[in-house]
Amino acid sequence: MDRLGDLEIFARVAATGSMSQAARELGLSPPVISKRIKRLEERLGTRLLQRTTRQIVLTDAGRGFHERVIAILGSVDEAEAWVSQRAHVARGPLRISAPTTFGRLHVAPHLVRFLERYPEISVDLSLSDSFVDVVGDGFDVALRIADLGDTSLVARKLAPNHRLLCAAPDYLARHGKPQNLGDLARHKLLVHNADHWRLDGPDGPVTIPVPSVVVTNSSEVIREAVLAGLGIALRSTWDIGPELKSGQLVQVLPRYRGGQRVAIYAIYPSRRHLPQRTRVFIDFLAELYGPVPSWDQGLDLPTP
Question: Where are the alpha helices (DSSP H) in 53-148?
């Protein structure tokens, strides 16, 4: 029984939302696609797809299964690529999209080493805090800091994204250090492009309304505001790691942190026929950041 083939068919149906489209892309007939999906559901003992006259959508079980299938297929492709990549030369223009601050701090400084290693590659790096259309905008790869559970693109996790509540010592000296979530209501809070925080704590996920004292679409403005002692912010360790180590910022309510499903990913349109220049760039970042990125080293990270 071709179990891996069944997974590929399921992933293609989930990505296209259509058995007919999946059949065309895979070179199979729609009845074969339908039969293989039915066989997979029978083997698993659960419905993965909800079929209507207009569309096909994933069930709750299907969404969880899809996340794991994408990871499995990605690992298979990476294993095959590891064997064959030495026969290919990485060359040509590489279009990259990255979040503004992360790209400035953790991509741009390392481009010299990357281009020295791969001299036949040229880089076009676009920094934006908006989620770009990777395919429509013509990017080879995009770095994204998010919960990508439902993405139809291929995603490879590059690093964890620890987000901590923090404030400057002088702000806490003036306003006191909150002892529980309820205390946040009497503090000045700082957030951009949102009106709430989603936190994971000892009793599970919780959502906190955040009436920010500064309204801005810039994450860097919030960073400067919290460093200046204006209030409490939820920041990623890749952004404030040095300030936490130096004492310019301190953790607040360390039993709470940003949602743990959010991570730093490289996303790209397809595993098949992935240009070697894209593959080596993603591998370069994964090697650079490692299991414990430099910005997290030396920090006493909380465990909810």
Answer: 60-84, 100-106, 111-117
Q: Return the axis-axis angle of helices 19-26 and 3-16, rounded to nearest 10°.
A: 120
CB atoms within 10 A of CB 179: 9
Please report, in tens digits, the pLDDT of each residue of the chain (304 residues total). Answer: 578 888 888 888 888 888 888 888 888 888 888 888 899 888 889 998 887 767 788 888 888 888 888 888 888 877 777 666 554 678 889 999 999 999 999 999 999 999 999 999 999 999 988 888 887 888 999 999 988 765 566 889 999 999 999 999 999 999 999 999 999 999 999 998 888 899 999 888 999 899 888 888 888 999 999 999 999 999 999 999 999 999 999 999 999 999 888 899 999 887 667 888 999 999 999 999 998 999 999 887 754 4
Widest Cα–Cα separation across the chain: 70
Tokens of 90: 């990485």
Both structure tokens of 142: 């995009």
**Which residue in the block uniquely carries the two structure tokens 């290919």?**
88
Q: How far is CA 218 from CA 99, 166, 215, 241, in A?
A: 11, 18, 9, 19
* Domains in the chain, CATH or no CATH each: 3-83 (1.10.10.10), 88-160+262-289 (3.40.190.10), 163-258 (3.40.190.290)
